Amino acid sequence: MPRVQLAVIVAAVAGLLVSIYLTVLHYAGSPAACPIGGLVNCELVLTSPYAVVAATTVPTSAAGILWFALTALLWTRRFGWTQVAWSAIGMAVVLYLVFIEIVKLGAICLWCTVAHVLVLLIFLVAVSTRSERAAR
Asked: Tell me, what CATH number does 115's domain have?
């Protein structure tokens, strides 16, 4: 397995663990291990109406579990447009969630930011891998 593939799978597993942690916290009603003052305020973000999928009680972190699990699975396969498209979907969702955090809530969650950075990393690897293969 190429190193790039392995790196993405490791990043996806890390994102999966963060998403599981946030989902467990949601259902347990426990606060995250994170500062709660100023710009960094996990509690504000994780208890906001945006912390759940619209019109449900399902936490957005559960969607993260699904996204990261499927990402890990996709990257065990031969690389193609599927990985690029899937990572682009993840990146679009991350941009929306970061907008919500900064503009609507005025706070960011460190745990969410870790997941967002992992999605960005996976997206950049997918795009650069596609570019490299197209140049051949």
From this structure: 1.20.1440.130
Contacts of 34 (CB under 8 A, 6+ apart): 40, 41, 42, 43, 109, 110, 111
The domain total for the chain is 1
pTM of the model: 0.93
Q: Any idea what DSSP says for residue 77? A: S
What are the residues whose beta carbons fall under 8 Å from the beta carbon of 36, sequence distance 6 or more? 42, 43, 44
CA–CA gap between residue 135 and residue 125 (Å, rounded)? 15
Q: Which domain holds residue 120?
A: 3-135
Backbone angles phi, psi at 61, to 5 degrees: -65, -25
| Per-residue pLDDT reduced to its tens digit, 99-129 | 999 999 999 999 999 999 999 999 999 999 9
